[in-house]
Amino acid sequence: MASIDLLTPHISKVKLPGPEQLIYKDECVYSFDNPESETGLYVSLVSFLGFGRNYVEQYFQKTGNAVFLHIWREKIPVPEPEQTGDGPEKKITRLAIGVEGGFDPSCGKPKFTYTNHYSIIVLPGLHTYPWPNPSLPEAIKKSAQAVIDAESPFKIAELAALAGTWDGEAREVSVHAVSLKQLDNGVKIPPSGWKCAKCELTTNLWLNLVDGAVLCGRRFFDGSGGNEHAVEHYRETGYPLAVKLGTITAEGKGDVFSYAEDDMVEDPYLADHLKHFGINVQQLQKTDKSMVELELELNQRTGEWNTLQESGSSLQPLHGPGLTGLVNLGNSCYINSVVQVIFRMPDFVRRFVEGAPEIFATFPEDPVNDFNVQTAKLGVGLLSGRYSVPGDTDGTQPGVACHMFRNLVGKDHPEFQSKRQQDAHEFYLHLLTLLQRNSRHKPNPSDCLKFSVEERVQCGESRGVRYSTRPEHHLPLPVPLRAADNAPAVRRAEERRAAAAASDQPLDPSTVVRPNIPFAACLDSFMKEETVEQFFSSAVNKKVTAHKITRLATFPDYLLIQLKKFTIKEDWTPAKLDVSVDMPWEVDLSCLRGRGLQPGETPLPDTAVEPTYDAALMAQLLDMGFPAEACKKALYYTANSGMEAASNWLMEHMTDWDFANKFQPPGAAPAPEANLDEASVEQIMNMGFTRAQAARALSSTQGDVGRAVDWIFSHADELDAWEAPAQPDRALGCRDGPEKYKLIAFISHMGTSTMVGHYVCHLLHEGRWVIFNDNKVALSENPPKNLGYLYLYERL
Fold first, then answer.
1. Which residues of the chain have pLDDT under 70?
2. pTM above 0.70, yes or no
């Protein structure tokens, strides 16, 4: 044992963690080394940051903090007990992965016992003191014991994220349950023999808790389910709550849906509400499937889960550089899929993998909350191969768990900080926003994805044209169902399913026929001319009907295509198109090339006009609960064309960070600088922005500095154009090149909406297609490219 005297010079720096202090004792802040790694983890007794062996000495040289608690965890496999058949089989009850009741990613893995071994380490020289050790100075003993006793920050973050998580069972109490007025109409519900009051269905029946009407539920996307009579009843009467018959238990629980709140809810007074109709819950047993069980069955029945995960193939496990799996941290598959894809592009590799030594060398004071550090850590962890080792025979490997990255990118975001399933496309855009904020003085790696979109609008009366451009990072392609090349087969399958549902017969999986949409039809739908009503033409000084076409002014090095599979049904419930799209392995997109103003075309005069908002439409949107400024944007960008267009715009943009911010139309004069706080202006100017940019951003965000900086980043191209209104740059600074591409990655979604289900991705790695299903990495035998959601194409 080293001499205690070596500790003496450092005792004064050793700290006792406060109650709010986060102690990173589970993982290195610069790598994925952890206590189970061969060299264990070193936790500073000053900063309480954890370091792997590769970084602890650099940290000491940078800070002078010399005393660490070393943690090494011994992991011993426990043999699996023999299957006796006596124990109950684990039942899947939630359409999620990595949460209680969901699909268990660890299923089939051996169990382990763990023993932690501790010691005190002093640098330089890695002098070691055993633990526990009564001869250690009191300050070091108290600090080390506090670290040992502390709760993991990952566990703390997980508990916070789980609050309010939709997992198929956690539901909000309905606002209508407390004061629900039930009609005294004498209706009594028998204990059995139920049938829809408007059709012959005897399954999927819902009891309206106001008037006792028993009606069938919604039709599922595959044609099964009900005939929509329960929701029609709500539209006619406004009676808000219904319970699904057959799901009621003796404890007074059951599937309750609030049509007014458009969600599954909790009714704490369900037993009393049922008693009103003569139902004694203590005599009831659950006989019907819950909504979660139905959705699970539906997904398993249609085969989407098996197809996308290639469950029917004997997949060859892979490991090595670029083949590292990611642990599912509870519905984090959307994050896992997106980050696996972005690190396939050289710009990201150069910035965050090859540039990692430079990023790490800065040793910021708070590396846990440094976006560049955590992104570089993730990139190195995925591509180095250091953490990609052989795992189970099914391709599951230990992989890495991106706790710090997930917590950081979800920070202050109400959805991404939760453990609810999210839309991979929305996360992709959110991640690019964070990249832009953190690339002020360095090349932005997402520039390889950026392209300029050209919109041409032609006045229906003067024939004058106006060209405008905007930057984008993805190409959204519609999925036109009417263009299916197997429409007769789809119709016959729908008729068979409807007949089976009407006769209460089980659905034959062979009857599921997906519409097959040619890729060319998606392109045609994107390129078709749109009619713009109430367009103000500066040539004739009045509102006219105009025509708009959209093209690409530039083509990026990497093109991300989003198939618009997710939509909103007429009753405002989310839905997913269950279709097959014939996506090409290679494609020539020269048909999308925009050419700008052509000979013989007359530009519309540039006259700034104060926008007008249809008062009736504005009132209807406000009654729906949308913020006033958001309603203005919707009416402006849809040219007051109607409720459907405006409400669709609002639904599509609800997650925009500036959704409710003050609206300033493009091209309008900047807001006046009156009453601006000069300290706020100077603070933003110190970040490298001009006074005009700072003033305009503060004016647009009610003087909030943080939001103003975000506003500048999201309006960078607009600001540049406003400050220097010279000849417009159609390219907007975007790279350009040939229009021919090859497919190198795609992300697929399983489930009926973005809020549930699972994501996997397929990547082209060294000439072979590989499936990344969280921490399962294997050679793909049948890449299901026709069922994907997001596609990444690389220029040939």
1. 1-2, 80-111, 159-171, 219-225, 282-309, 311-314, 392-395, 440-441, 500-511, 534, 568-574, 607-610, 655-658, 664-676, 678-679, 686, 688, 702, 714-729, 754-755
2. yes
With b for 16 or more beta-carbon neighbours within 10 A and e for fewer, the 526-564 pattern comes to beeeeebebbbbbbeeeebebebeebbbbbbbbbbbbbb
d(CA 715, CA 711): 6
| Euclidean distance between CA atoms 718 and 723, whole angstroms | 9
Helices 705-714 & 424-437 angle (0-180, nearest 10):
100
Residue in the block written with tokens 């720096």: 13
CA dihedral sign of residues 722, 725, 728, 734: negative
- Say how many CA atoms lie within 13 Å of 590 toward its Cβ: 3
Closest C-alpha to 94, from 299, 401, 384: 299
Q: Which of 328, 778, 753, 714 is nearest to 339 (CA)?
A: 328
Contact by Cβ (8 Å): 559, 741: yes
Instruction: Decide: helix, strand or coil at residue 779.
Output: strand
**Dist. CA 632–CA 621, nearest whole Å:** 10
pLDDT tens column, 717-775: 555 544 443 345 688 889 999 999 999 999 999 877 766 778 999 999 999 999 999 98
Is the separation of the CB atoms in 378 and 339 below 8 Å? yes
What residue has token string 């006009």?
A: 609
Q: From the CB of residue 284, how many other CB atoms can be counted at a distance below 10 Å? A: 20
**Paired tokens of 460:** 């229906």
Q: Tell me the per-residue pLDDT of 90-127, one tens digit each, with 9 for 90 and over.
A: 444 444 444 455 555 454 444 678 899 999 999 999 99
User: Read out DSSP for 559-601?
Assistant: EEEEE--EEE-TTS-EEE---EEE--SEEE-GGGB---SPTT-
Structure tokens at 337: 């899929």
Copy the structure tokens of residue 180: 């629900």
CA–CA distance, 29 with 366 (Å, rounded to integer): 9
Helix (H) or strand (E) holding 75: strand 67-78
Say if residues 751 and 334 touch (Cβ distance below 8 Å): no
Active site annotation includes 333: yes
The H or E element that residue 415 is part of is: none
Instruction: Give 107's contacts (C-beta < 8 A, 6+ positions apart).
Output: 90
Q: Tell me, what amino acid is at 428?
A: Y
Annotated active-site residue 448? The verdict is: no
What's the CA gap between 339 and 284, in Å, rounded? Answer: 48
Task: Report H helices in 177-310.
Answer: 229-237, 270-275, 291-302, 304-308
User: Which of 758, 761, 762, 765 is flagged as catalytic?
Assistant: 758
| Cβ neighbourhood burial of 69 (10 Å; 0-12, 13-18, 19+) | buried
d(Cα 622, Cα 632) in Å, to the nearest integer? 10
- All structural domains of the chain, each given as residue ranges with its CATH number in brackets, are 4-150 (3.30.40.10), 168-302 (3.30.40.10), 615-723 (1.10.8.10)
Exposure string for 218-241, b = 16+ CB within 10 A, e = fewer: bbbebbbbbbbbbbebbeeeebbb
CA-to-CA distance for 516 and 490, rounded, in angstroms?
9
* CA–CA separation, 787 and 777 (whole Å): 19
User: Pairing between strand 558-563 and 475-477?
Assistant: parallel
**Alpha helix stretches (DSSP H) within 457-596:** 487-502, 519-527
Q: Which of 196, 333, 402, 448 is catalytic?
A: 333
As a whole number of angstroms, the distance between CA 96 and CA 105 comes to: 10
Q: Mind giving me the DSSP string for 52-64? A: -HHHHHHHHHHH-
Tokens representing residue 254 in the block: 């059951």
Q: How far apart are the first and last CA of the chain?
A: 62
Which tokens sit at 664?
């300033």
Q: Which residues pair with 562 in a beta bridge?
A: 476, 790
Residues facing 745 on adjacent strands: 763, 792
Closest CA to 472 of 531, 517, 526: 526
